[in-house]
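Need tokens for this chain, all 125 residues.
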Amino acid sequence: MRKLMVLVVLILIILSGCSSEASLTNDEKVTGLVNSYLEALESKDISAMVKYTDDLRFPNKEEQKKQYSNIEEEITDTKIVEIKEISETEFEATVEISSDGNINELTFPIQKQDEDWKIIVGQDF
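Here are the structure tokens for all 125 residues:
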């Protein structure tokens, strides 16, 4: 009986760990996405930058990768200023990016595309 009880508890622990991704709120998912994107910017991880974005300037991901590999800007620091929900499928992220000695504040739309969230870049304001 005791072994059965231990087995049931272990199964419940495993199942609750598996469902933690599904229990994240949209706000948490979007905040995680923006943080991952900012880390990719700082480390110049082009594959990650392409993965997290939908860049409207490029017709496909290969062209996007090619153009991103030519970026010479040195990004030294990034931070999230604000993330606000526009609708169930759209957020807006304001971030601060320090590059080449300048601090710029940028706002990006974030949209749910299929099951994934994407940062929309390359749009005109």
